[in-house]
Amino acid sequence: MQHTLDTLLERVTAIVAENLKIDPSAVNPDGDLIDDLNADSLDALSITMSLQVEMGVSINDEQMAQFRTPRKIARALWEQMQGDPQKVCQG
Amino acid sequence: MTTRVVVSGIGLVTPVGSSLEEFRRAIYSGKPGIREIQDFDTSRCETKVGGTVTEFNPHSVLTNKEIFRLDKGTQMAVVAGAAALRDSRLLDNGAIEDASELGTVIGTGTGSAHSVEQSYCAFFTQRKIDPFSIPMGMHHAAASYLSIKFGLRGSGLTVSTACSSGAVALGAAFHEIKSGRSRRMLAGGVDASLTRTHLEIWGSMRVLSSQNEHPERCMKPFSRNRDGFVIGEGAVMLVLEELESARGRGAPIYGEVVGYGCSSDASRITAPSVDGPMMAMTRALRSAEIGAESIDYINAHGTATYLNDKTETEAIKRTFPQRSVPVSSIKPITGHMFGASSAAEFVAILLACQLGEIPPTVNYEQEDPECDLDYVVAGPRKTSVRYALSNSFAFGGHNAVLVAKRVE
User: Would you give the DSSP letter of residue A27?
Assistant: First the structure.
């Protein structure tokens, strides 16, 4: 499917919830993964790996460090996908 | 003044239940928790039964995320650890008294078997990698997470000496308190390795019973028609501390730890020796500062393999040459829970001291001229037990023996 920013945020929220074993409704799009959702560094790594597999994107350490909220993650992925049309259809 | 070390808390997760009362009832009534394995396909396994834990509820202590990120054995250790801490009146509404002074020492033979197996399976079949594989699979995951979960900041240690792991852990905790290095320790054993590969590999070593048609009757320690053990799973955790510290808190006092001895066979990797266990028993008696005549009950390693029961019998006879000491094995009740068994069997000798009653060896059917001790076989035996000894021997030749004393 072709993602919009909104559908991307929906998927990111679902992936965050799945990795943290919480209900998606408990994930605030603007909540901080570490401070609000109690994620640790390995959770962040695991979320990143899930995103890479599902979205077919490559995420480096610098980008991962910016992944503080689901909305910021979705925005970063959106921008990356816009720059690489081959990724737009994946996910 | 001599430091007296007592057990002030007990927590268990076993095939016969997750409370001390259920465990006590099972070992004294002779009701095994051995059943057909349902968790995976056993069609290619010669042994299809095990001591499976069927009523385990990790949600009582752990969150969904913790359960997802912890090996089954680690979950059992944390649940048993929480129960021991609550029992000792140390854990109250989530807060631990003096947590900064509480150390952990946990014994495990096989470590985080389920997680390790799943990681390799996912990698080799799907090239899938999970960054949690290392923290979930590491041998010291249980000791680590007990410390993290309850904020325990004393010394932390994991020991791995196969089947004697839990006894070695309790021995290390005993020394830690006796020497004054620690005030309190959470110690015990855990193993949850009932996986298809472990079952097939243990089976290939020809040490498992294959009497699948009667799961509860398959393990027959010291009986001539014995054909091995069955694998069990579980975790058994104890709080050890100085006597006055436990009394001051109003904690239950299950008994005193008075002696610990260990030895290495320095012989063969799997075949047991006679002199190695003898040395461990002799050192345990010396550590307790008592003679062999003081022991009223021996809880045997009693795995129901041909070699163990024969050599253990000989080692006991040579260590206790003057008289016949009552002996029993509770392994047919729980299965061989490896690291957890040696801790569970220490609980059994504490109960024997406290209750004045020896739990029986179930399934004893035929006399064996090579096993000719005073085995307690036809139901429990009422008798005064002041001192009791628990044997734990292991592949690799690591023997560990603990001595308990009734608190008077």
Answer: -
Find the closest chain B residue to A39 by CA distance.
B65
Q: What is the pLDDT of residues B64-122, one digit of tens each?
A: 999 999 999 999 999 999 999 999 999 987 778 788 899 999 999 999 999 999 999 99
CATH T-level assignment (fold) for domain B7-255:
Peroxisomal Thiolase; Chain A, domain 1 (3.40.47)
Task: Give me the interface pTM, i.e. the ipTM.
Answer: 0.74
Could you tell me the residue ranges of all domains in chain B?
7-255, 258-405
pLDDT of residue A89: 39
H or E element at residue B259: strand B255-264
| Residue B138 near residue B144, CB atoms below 8 Å | yes
Residues of A within 8 A of B132 (CB-CB) are: 42, 46
Please state which architecture CATH assigns to domain B258-405.
3-Layer(aba) Sandwich (3.40)
Looking at the complex, does the CB of residue B126 fall below 8 Å from at least one CB of chain A? no
Same fold: B7-255 with B258-405: yes
CA distance B323 to B104: 38
B198 is catalytic: no
pTM: 0.93
Helix (H, G, I), strand (E, B) or coil at B242: strand
Q: Which two tokens stand for residue B78?
A: 């944390």
A49 touches chain B (CB under 8 A): yes
